[in-house]
Amino acid sequence: MRKWWMGGALALALAVQLAGCGGGSGGGADGTSAGTSTNTGTGTTSGTATDLDTPLRAYLASNGVVAPAEPAVSDALYNLGSVLFQSTLLSGTRSVSCASCHPIGNAGLDNLVLSIGVNGSGTPPNRTGSPLIHRNAPDLLNKVVGNPRFMFWDGRVSVSDGVYASPAGAALPVGLGSLAAVQALFPLLSRPEMLGYNDPADANELADLNAAGATVEQDPLPVWNGIMARLRADTQIAGLLQQAYPDTPLSAIGISAVGNGLAAFESRRWYAFGTKTYFHGYMAGVLDIPDSAKRGGLLFFGKAGCAACHGGPLLSDQKFHNLAVPQIGPGFGAGAAMTPPRDLGRHGVTGSDADKYAFLTPSLWEVKNTWPYFHNGVFATLEEAVRHHLDPAASAMAFRCSDALRSGGNVVPCQDSTTAPVLYADLVARLDPALKSPPKLSDSEFADLIAFLNQLTNGSNNSVR
Ligand code: HEC
Ligand code: HEC
Q1: If you take atom 14 of ligand 1, which residue's CA is the nearest one?
Q2: What are phi and psi of 456, to 5 degrees?
Q3: Which CATH class for the 2-65+288-454 domain?
Q4: Distance 188 CA to ligand 2 centre (A)
Q5: What is the pTM (predicted TM-score) of this model?
Q6: Residue with CA closest to ligand 2 atom 13
Q7: For 75-102+140-269, which CATH class?
């Protein structure tokens, strides 16, 4: 009992801290104030309330919501990844590191609507400049656990039966140890994110290496090899490469070492399941959560239908759905060149009409901190993101662009149903059938659902403030 109380007190202290630093998130307050009332005392043992635990635990079991074990990572690879993650040598322009958009002290989250690439300056969320990247940068929590099948909002990096697929096709090197390791090689090839353009402002020895007629992603080896040449010439990184691969001559250590190092860093730095706090502690049976959050959990897995898509260890079905999320941003792939510009999501990978505007279901762990929400960061608060699910078509049509929608000082390019009626009609017509008759929730049910989402946080070892 004493131990349980300590856990509650710790959770509470962290909760107060979170409420203090929450920035623009409207989501923080509900969960923490609810946490106060239950965690300080009786929990469910007070006896009067209906039993919320038995059905909630049954839902967890039937939806496969379990905490994955932390993968083992070698110190040598972790140390390599830690330096690489913060090294601007990985960017053609030598101006950006992974941490420029995925700050280490904030779970890899920049909390910007759209990230800012090679010509930006400053540390998120106070990063300014250009160019605006096409999508919202996800947090980097739990990327190496729970058997993810896809990376990126459109899943353009994927694994099936142990075989990786990526925009690099056959050029993908051998020796990559995880999907996260594969993913980590692609920001290096992205002109707006790290490589730079073929213009004088971004001039660098890597920017022009791809063969005529091929994109950098289709002809990636010259850029990857060029980055390896830079890394081998750096005394500190050369030493770390050699320690991680002691049996391979330095000259033969290839770009897969960079992917594996970065994945090892992400794996250990951002494994965010513990037993001491919030819902993780509840799942482990060592901590209680407020009754409102339990009622919200019963809605999440029951009447509100959330778990149909947000189930399993990652609270994601690892599938793609069109939620008719308002179309903002510069567009992506073929959609960037269309008028008006658009992000066709999964369609860009499969070419299938059924995948238009569909995006990968994101994990909901730590969701209270991962604002702004959706693939393009269009909604600032958790409440808005959840409300959108409850009537996606009406929400999309009612959305209005405004100069107030900014990222790092830039007004975000934006389309709404008045400026792009044909695009919005198409977006809404293709809404995922599963959301065509969404659940009706009362105000108190909605509040309970938010209270549950606010508990899906660890707060102890992931540096989410
Ligand atoms: C200029 C900003 C920027 C930089 C630099 C950057 N990223 Fe990202 N990252 C993003 C954005 C934006 C996305 C989402 C892109 C998409 O889905 O199309 C993303 C996606 C990811 C994902 C996928 C997560 C998921 O759940 O699908 C991982 C992992 C990741 N980045 C790791 C890295 C690593 C490692 C580096 C350095 C090699 C890096 N990023 C550099 C902005 C950036
Ligand atoms: C039909 C599948 C589906 C259902 C059902 C569903 N979601 Fe989602 N959810 C998604 C997808 C896909 C996205 C990302 C959409 C995008 O960005 O375009 C998402 C995004 C979210 C986000 C934003 C997360 C982030 O990091 O940006 C939240 C919060 C969320 N869902 C909560 C819920 C809740 C609560 C419910 C139940 C009321 C629910 N979802 C039901 C598929 C679903």
Answers
A1: 137
A2: -80, 45
A3: mainly alpha
A4: 29
A5: 0.90
A6: 361
A7: mainly alpha
